Amino acid sequence: MAAEKTSKLSEAYPMKAGDGPNSYAKNSAYQKGVVGAAKELLNRAIRDLSVLQHLSHCRLGPNTFLSVENILEAVEFKYQGQGFNSQILEFQVFFNDHTPNDFNMLFKSLPQSRQYYAAGVPGSFCGRIFANASIHLVHSSYALHWLSRVPKEIVDIDSPAWNKGRIDYSNSTEEVVRAYEAQYAEDMECFLHARAQEIVYGGLMVLIIPGRPNGTPHSLTLLNAVHQLLGSCLMDLARKGVVREEKVDSFNIPIYNTSPQELEAAVEKNGCFSTEKMENLPRISALDIDNVTRRAQLIAYHIRATTEGLIKQEFGDEILDELFGLYSKKLEQQPSIFESGKAINFLLVLKRNAN
After folding, report:
1. E runs forming strands in 146-233
2. Suppose 33 and one of 230, 237, 246, 284 were both cysteines; which one would form an S-S bond, judging by CB atoms 3.0 to 4.6 Å apart?
3. How many CB atoms lie within 10 A of CB 292?
């Protein structure tokens, strides 16, 4: 019975593994900046938490350890401020991600001087991954914009939501947009329901989420715009005969850019958490570079690190260099995409209700 409850059927979308030039480890400076920007807000949130011993962190990567260090530093500061000896604290940290992701890289990179016990917990966070009431704090950074799967209507040629010729939803039909919205709402309910069972009463969930400002059309969201441009590159390769157009028609990126308003509605519907804080993070300048060519290259590396696994699975790895070389050129030719596209990163702190 317990095994039956552990996970929801979910696809895995691993980042580019290892530490090579195209890896996620080498191309996640932007995410590192977001984690740093959230540090002070995170510190203030933890000051209100009575106990913290078991921490879960969702999503592996080079910035994972920075997030953990920030959290534990805040807890130790809290205990010292209350007159307790923080040296008596012991911490158990669980690192969670899908099984295809690079746990080996994580374990090889664990800081030698870490002040916590570490364990890896594989599985989709859309379902149960921990025992009942066993976690005091869940921290998820740059993970909840990934859907558990591409909406099934999107790849059904007989459906009004068939997303022919596109790889994302932002500039598509209303049927496609609604399919993505419905999939995101379903995934968030599963996520919140699972965490409500795993987190102790009074425990916290700290979420760092990329998204779009309230009221912003999906077509004007920066991440959607860069994905749309990547889709145009795939269509260019299809016209050249490098890939089959039918393959492009069936390929979609399972990412959804939510708004704070949508998240508030999901939390309210679930009913197990209260919102302690929701705040936009400062703008991150990691990719704000005056040299247009260099900026285009950095964006291309970043998008490749996060989408290469998906593209390789659908089209093979032979097209990757040609695809992202073309993508980098298009980004360079369309610098206005960075000024016109809207995006926010926001911090959401939820507290587990007692009922």
Report:
1. 199-211
2. 284
3. 14
CATH of the domain at 202: 3.40.50.150
Phi-psi region of 292 (alpha: psi -120 to 50; beta: other; left: phi over 0): alpha
- Quick check: 218 pLDDT over 50? yes
Q: Are 258 and 267 in contact (CB under 8 A)?
A: no
**Quick one: CA dihedral 329, 332, 336, 340, positive or negative?**
positive
Q: And the tokens for 63?
A: 């910035």
Q: Which two tokens stand for residue 217?
A: 């059309």
**pTM score of the predicted model:** 0.85
% of the chain with per-residue pLDDT over 70: 82
Terminal-residue alpha carbon distance, the chain: 24
Provide the domain limits for residue 269: 19-352
Token couple for 220? 């004007």
What is each CA distance from 57 to 64, 68, 71, 119, in whole angstroms? 8, 8, 10, 10
- Domain membership of residue 5 (yes or no) is no
3 state SS of 244 = coil
